[in-house]
Amino acid sequence: MGADHEQILTVVNSAMNARTYGDIMTLTAGAATALRGAATLRARLQRITTFALGEEKGEGGNDSHISTALNFVATRGELLKRTRKGDLHWKQVSLYLNSKKKCVISEVHNDIPAWPKREREDKAEQRAYFGIKTGDGIIEFECESNGDKQMWMDGMQYMLNCSNNIAYF
């Protein structure tokens, strides 16, 4: 989360070129909106982490693994996604429980076969694949390693279990 060099230069140039009170008010409003957005994202991440830690107490040594897996899926990760037509696209992926308790993911699939023409030459550690089932169908993703896949699987499965156990009032 953050701005790249180009965005910062644009903002600084806009501030230096401000000539009227309206220009300054526009820049101030934009900055306030950006700060509110950052605070909202920070609070969401903190709420997810707190929720996960509170739910997982008392299961022995599994606490740190679940916390790590939840943090792994809550912070964005870059995964390769395969479309229904077979095209491959890099996507920033994160998972969180929203405030409306609406679940768009219904299942996590561990048994996705390897994609054709995606084998590594070094064969040291093979890529790993998983899928998530949504209302639109199964979305397939590729991970760099089995360890990454397991973190995604554990974090998503735990969050699905938590969302299914939340009482609706």
UniProtKB/TrEMBL annotation:
| A Pfam family | PH_2
On the tree of life, the source organism's domain of life is Eukaryota
Q: What range(s) does the Pleckstrin-like plant domain occupy?
A: 97-163
Q: Which InterPro entries match?
A: PH_pln (IPR013666), VAB (IPR040269), VAN3-bd-like_auxin_canal (IPR008546)
Enumerate the SUPFAM superfamilies for this protein.
Answer: PH domain-like (SSF50729)
The record's listing under CDD domains reads: PH
Q: Which residues form the VAN3-binding protein-like auxin canalisation domain?
A: 1-48
Q: What protein does this entry describe?
A: FORKED-LIKE4
Naturally occurring in which organism (per UniProt)? Hibiscus trionum (Flower of an hour)
